[in-house]
């Protein structure tokens, strides 16, 4: 077969060969690859680092912010820890950021060369995005300079659906969450997020437990509290005359107003003043309303029994209403201890032999009907698990 010729008489193969050997104008890039320099670099003239002593940076952040390769970090010491990504625990490698910066300066030929390299990349980023707000660079190279480097990795697109802000990147919180009932996990975290734990002095304008490591201690204590609770039913009881009657009573529950002076009377509530160990007041549904609640619970027990189809599920609806209207979970920060003032609604029968004090502090002791209700509940011995919500 004859060779196909181009218009100039050369073959296509010859044309391709000629094109391959044609000298092209080199592409200018910002990267400056490390070269073997026979002349040693005088590092004594390099400026002082602005990175704090002991500051660490993860391997991924070091590669992204300093534009390094994994091979550049091979001869640097590191520590292995754990983090949470996409809903699972994975290893994380932490490097001394001063070592990483030094390696970068050596790679580029000095701090000024790295400055120029970053400046070129920054200008390109601004030209494309309009500003440098999210330009990846070391914190100490940002315009303010010397910023404290706090490692808080944002969830990537692949992990967004599994990301829990109350776990963050803490493997400890991840494990605690796995062992804590979901309803209690959410209730405890709501409390830690509340204004009760907001402090400008301690939290730098944020919540006291806004950081993962600060939340680990109280949530570990909550895990201990979780062991006192009975299983929570997955669904509410189906409608029935007895169940509907209980729900009607609960819909009319007196509630503490959001803003009130502690110690003032509240409609539908009984106020008790305490002078020991500290001056305090406690609030409770008044006896008339408690009589109605206990009468409705007794009706549920009479119709549906004390099993999962009756009392064991119905008690949770009373517990939720009491927590909402009167009092529930609280965290004693100085004692590192949780208390659930509504927990007695989930307890079984209170008896003599060490448990009579629990009866006296429960709502059952405030109502004559409550005493009858207590006698109808399943018996729990003193060697059973601790009272619900008390440690």
Automatic annotation (TrEMBL):
Keywords on record: Nucleus, Zinc
Compositional bias segments (type: Low complexity): 1-34
Recorded superkingdom: Eukaryota
Location(s) in or outside the cell: Nucleus
Presence of keyword Nucleus: yes
Gene Ontology CC terms: nucleus
Main location: nucleus
Keyword GTP-binding appears in the UniProt entry: no
Region (Disordered): 1-44
Residue ranges, compositional bias (Polar residues): 35-44
InterPro entries associated with the record: DNA-bd_dom_put_sf, XPA_sf
Protein name: Uncharacterized protein
């Amino acid at each position: 077969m004859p060779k196909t010729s181009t218009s100039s008489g050369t073959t296509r193969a010859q044309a391709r060969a000629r094109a391959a050997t044609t000298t092209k104008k080199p592409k200018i890039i910002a990267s400056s690859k490390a070269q073997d320099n026979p002349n040693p670099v005088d590092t004594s003239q390099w400026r002082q680092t602005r990175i704090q002593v002991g500051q660490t940076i993860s391997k991924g952040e070091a590669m992204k912010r300093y534009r390094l390769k994994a091979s550049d970090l091979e001869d640097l010491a590191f520590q292995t820890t754990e983090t949470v990504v996409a809903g699972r625990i994975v290893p994380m490698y932490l490097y001394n950021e001063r070592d990483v910066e030094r390696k970068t300066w050596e790679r580029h030929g000095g701090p000024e060369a790295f400055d120029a390299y970053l400046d070129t990349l920054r200008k390109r980023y601004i030209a494309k995005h309009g500003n440098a707000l999210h330009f990846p660079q070391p914190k100490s190279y940002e315009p303010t300079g010397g910023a404290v480097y706090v490692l808080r990795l944002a969830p990537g697109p692949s992990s967004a659906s599994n990301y829990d802000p109350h776990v963050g990147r803490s493997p400890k919180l991840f494990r605690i969450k796995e062992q804590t009932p979901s309803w209690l996990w959410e209730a405890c975290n709501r409390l830690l997020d509340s204004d009760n734990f907001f402090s400008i002095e301690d939290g730098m304008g944020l919540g006291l437990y806004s950081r993962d490591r600060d939340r680990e201690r109280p949530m570990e204590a909550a895990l201990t509290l979780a062991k006192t609770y009975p299983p929570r039913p997955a669904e509410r009881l189906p409608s029935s005359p007895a169940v509907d009657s209980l729900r009607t009573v609960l819909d009319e529950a007196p509630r503490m107003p959001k803003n009130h002076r502690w110690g003032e009377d509240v409609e539908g509530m009984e106020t008790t003043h305490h002078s020991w160990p500290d001056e305090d007041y406690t609030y409770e549904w008044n006896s008339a309303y408690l009589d109605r609640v206990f009468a409705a619970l007794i009706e549920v027990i009479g119709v549906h029994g004390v099993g999962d189809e009756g009392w064991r599920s119905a008690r949770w609806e009373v517990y939720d209403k009491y927590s909402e209207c009167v009092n529930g979970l609280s965290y004693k920060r100085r004692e590192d201890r949780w208390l659930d003032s509504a927990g007695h609604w989930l307890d079984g029968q209170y008896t003599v032999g060490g448990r009579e004090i629990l009866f006296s502090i429960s709502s059952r002791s405030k109502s004559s009907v409550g005493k009858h209700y207590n006698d109808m509940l399943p018996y729990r011995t003193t060697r059973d698990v601790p009272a619900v919500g008390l440690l």
